[in-house]
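Board notes, transcribed. Complex of a protein with biotin.
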Amino acid sequence: MLNGSEIEKQLNLADEKINVQVLKSVSSTNDVVKEMFIENSEKVSLAATNKQTAGRGRGGKSFYSDLDKGLYFSFAFQPKETALENLPLYTIAAATALVQILENYVNHPVSIKWVNDIFYQGRKVSGILSETITEPASNAIKGIIIGIGINFAGDFASADHNAQEVAGTLFGKKVPDNFNQNLFLAEFLERFFDIHEHIEEKNFMTIYRDHLLGMNKEVHYTVAGNQRVGIIRGIDEHGFLLIETPDNKIEKLYGQEIHFGSSQFLDF
Ligand code: BTN
């Protein structure tokens, strides 16, 4: 059972204090955590649930959030680095921490489909949605929200067509008897804030690159409605995806307009 005081008990953050809310069911934990952070931005805010009624993904898509064993959580914090070009680093840092912790629980490698999808054995098992909280008057960035949904176990029989096509689980139909989601959350947050403390050094990006799906493979993608093809060559220091085009130039990709068909990644 998700339990706020259990999470706090397991959690050992070096410099941060945390406010935790565990909810039975909620529309989106990203919205809850935003309110919590606006109320008290001195502490990290964490909202977690096992059921969302309006889970959101990137690009306005919905995120199936009613799995038998699914964990949906968001946390908000004051970022060390607020330069706009470095904001993608937060998604990259969260994905890095996530694959590292998830790999302690499963037998096969966990991979990242750039930029925010976590894959296990050819299926998407987790997604990350990062948002900013800005000061209304100045538009300055006050906080970063990272929202994460994880499919631990269950099936997608009542999910929408898109989820059924690509989604999978880490543990199959049932979580291992000794699996403790409170401990998992605490381990993830510790790892994330460990990375955050030295985010400007960018050391974690090597781990992200090592987990990137499709490295040196051909990929089809769409930019502003145009179909293109190229070879994935990694990410640059800001988290942009580097694609080598057929005329041997490097194209840098970032933003909502880029879409990879997930089926391209099933064979990797
Ligand atoms: C994606 O796959 O595009 C991102 C999915 C992010 C889902 C998580 S679940 C917790 C948090 N609340 C939301 O509404 N979305 C994020």
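The chain has a mean pLDDT of 92. The first strand starts at residue 18 and ends at 23.
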